[in-house]
Model the fold of this input.
Amino acid sequence: MNDALYAPPILGVRAEDCTFYHRLDIPALRDTQDWHWDLIGDEARYLGGIDFAGQRVLEIGPANGALTFWMERQGADVVACDLSPDVAKTSWDVLLREGMEPAAVRASMSAVMRGLNNGFWYAHAHYGARARLVHATAYDVPPGLGGFDVVTLCAVLLHLRDPLRALEHAMTFADDLLLITDLVPFHLTEEQRRQPVARFLPSPKSVPPHGGVTWWHITPALYEQFLDLRGFDIVGRSSGFYRHQTRPHELFHLVARRRARR
Done:
């Protein structure tokens, strides 16, 4: 394994320099409200009920690593892949509204990623974790990482301009299982949710100042159809409500297994 692929740990990170996208069950943080999602106690359900013991896992989009370190505690060997503050090398998909200043957007993006990366290394040190971090986008995860028993894409695809491109790239690393957890598209009707439908979300009023955006609401049926075409069988379907700082949100989970190659 090429150690040059992995980001060097950041040591001595302070909590005040971190962004905790997922709440962490760490005593020093127990009273903080600086989180977006609280998945504590719901990790197994959120991760599709997969048994992670002895599994090599590629986690695309770990944020501050709450799920990374939970999977490791279940016995997984986890490689997490996320962006870095160096937006020239790893940028999220930016949608610039008319009048936005690109330099300001890049600076905001860099600050967001610095906080999330700091949160990852803060938790890494607390748990004494072995998980490794790779800086890349969902479209260009380094092939030198090799294959994985499980690849996870949790609340990632809706934030990408080209979610099927990212999914297809993720498939190349999945020797066995691939997990998609994403938002149930509440902007669609019940009938539409049963169909392979994608709704484009951005509008002139919805693009935030940093340029990051929720691009799509996509139904599970669309992903199921695409996965089937690409040689994966759905072996797990579920959904549930999870605690968000605003209100509970419903997410769906698809666990897909690669069909045996003929």
Q: What stands out?
A: Residues 132 and 261 are 30 Å apart (CA to CA).
